[in-house]
Amino acid sequence: MRNVTVDNVTEVVIDSLGKHADIPARQREIMESLIRHLHGFCKDVNLTHDEFLAACDYLGRAGAMCSSKRQEFILLADILGVEVLVDMLSNPVSGNETISTVLGPFFRENAPILPKGASTVQKSFEGEETVYIEGYVRDVNGKPIAGAVVDIWEDAPNGLYENHDPDQPDYNLRGRFQTDESGHYACRAIRPVPYPIPSDETAGQLIRYMGHHPMRPGHIHMFVVAEGYRPLISQIFDSSSEYLDEDSVFAVKEELIGEFKKAPEGSDTDLVLRFDFTLAAANPQKAAAE
Ligand SMILES: [Fe+2]
Predict the structure, then answer these.
(1) What is the pLDDT averaged over residues 62-78?
(2) How far does the centroid of ligand 1 lie from the alpha carbon of residue 243, in Å?
(3) Mean pLDDT of the chain
């Protein structure tokens, strides 16, 4: 094709898909839609060449920000509401299972495996409020799930996750806890505080371009995994936190709001939080047959 025009360029590019090598149907579907939307976007806003070059420079700088401790693209997707959308499309709620929400950019694999009831706190901060967190992990029929792993991570009272704060010990405020025979899990942690998502560099540039703010309400991330069940990536939000109605990454769900209550007299923490999880079977037909 020698005569590419504004009118035919989209079809010309789509026609090139799979011309020189077979590509799977899903790959074709993704590329065709991507090309249509990208071209449509450029036409919609009549993108200038200077703006195009600025975008390429921006994406290059975002890529350079990524390391084993920082994932800038998840952050950008969060700011644009893309991760929450993909999560809702990937994990539609079909029964009474606990609703999922975004993983976010601060998850780290291989958090320490801690005994039931242990604390994730390796470094104390002035004014922190300690909390005993407990609950049950069950299936959609209410049967306890023993041996489920609850992976927990949260920010420190200075608003920073340990992997973004050189003054916190490695894996501070992170831990994995296993449920016992009755499906019960428990740990000790601290009340999470609202924090701004990293708004230096490219994420901040995007937030400012949108005229939005970077704040998230206080929340604890929970990733619950059990054999035979759909992994659940979720967060528990502090019911008394600011920003519940204006989360910068749009991840709040009503049923994920938990109450941090004053601990009973004689407790070794300031607060208690009870939160139960219900996991959907990985293969619902097989589970029903059993
Ligand atoms: Fe978070």
Answers:
(1) 90
(2) 13
(3) 95
Query: What is the domain partition of the chain in residue ranges?
Result: 9-47, 72-289
Average confidence (pLDDT) over 70-98: 93
Cα dihedral across residues 171, 173, 174, 179: positive or negative: positive
> What is the amino acid identity at position 207?
I
pLDDT range class, residue 101, cuts 50, 70, 90: very high
Task: Give the distance (Å) from ligand 1 centre to CA of residue 93.
Answer: 22
Residue 287: band (very low, low, confident or very high) from pLDDT cuts 50, 70, 90: low
Report CA(235)–ligand 1 centroid distance (Å): 8
d(CA 258, CA 275): 7
How far is the CA of 242 from the CAs of 82, 93, 200, 256, 262, in angstroms? 23, 27, 22, 15, 19
Please give the distance, rounded to the nearest whole angstrom, from the Cα atom of residue 17 to the centre of ligand 1. 39
Ligand 1 geometric centre to CA of 107 (Å):
8
**For residue 100, how far is its CA from the centre of ligand 1 (angstroms)?**
14
- Residue 132 Cα to ligand 1 middle (Å): 19
For the domain made up of 72-289, give the CATH fold: Protocatechuate 3,4-Dioxygenase, subunit A (2.60.130)
